[in-house]
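FAQ: What does the model actually see?

It sees only this:
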Amino acid sequence: MALSPTAAQRRIIAAADPVTGRLRGAEAQLTALVKRGLAFRHPRPPHDHFLTPAGHRIREAAEAPDEPGAPAVPDAGAAGGVFAARVGGEEAVPGGDAGPARLREVRGAWQGLLELRRMTHPDGSTDRPCAWERSHLVRAAALALEAAGHRPAGPDGTGGYRVRATPQPEAVAVHAPDGAALRDCAATLERAGWQTGEHTEPRTRARYLLASPRKV
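And it is asked to produce this:
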């Protein structure tokens, strides 16, 4: 079980890269985070330190809004806000989902995620999801879709994809406006290292994807 970090270590965790979890700080503090199970030292040069899933949870808990009913996904467009992929159904970000600033943010986040895959997989591969993605399924799937150019649904839930959690431990549901858009989402996720299958919602008969990270 991970031990609670000190105040100084919490500051290091809070300053971690929001996507890759890369840490910067005094070697003694980084080593202490490793001992607490909140970070790990990458075995390959330059031997950087990264947050473990437990470390990411502490970082996100500190950022979570206190207001009851506040949105779980941070507003990536807010000044100084933490980047979060658009899962569909949120209010539009300032400048629009296709604005230059947003496109740069998404592109940078996706490249950071590929680097995290490379550095955390023993074989250095980038073709399948890493541990961070498995512990942030909705955000990871949404980032893969947004980075490939898919548009998220608007606040009314229409016009684009929506990614939602499911009762299954390693799967998300992906909804799209029509069959063609759903198949496009499936192709994108499969290229990003996910496995997908189409299913039918019993009550509405709407088709949706069940997507889970590929392990090999």
